Amino acid sequence: MNSQRPLQILVLLYVAAVVVGVISIFHPGAGKSGARKPGALAIVHISGLISTKMSASPFERSDADEIARRIHKLSEDDNVKAILLRINSPGGTVGAVQEIDTELQRCRKKGKIIVASLADVAASGGYYLASSADVIVANPGTITGSIGVILEFGNLQGLMQKLGVKLEVIKSGAHKDIGSPARELTPEERRLLQASITDAYEQFLQAVALGRHQPEDKIRPLADGRIFTGRQAQQVGLVDRLGDQEDAIEIAIALAHLPEHPQIISDDTRSLGAILQHLSSEAPSGAWQAVAASWSHSPSVEYRWQ
Question: pTM of the predicted model, to two decimals?
Answer without folding.
Answer: 0.76
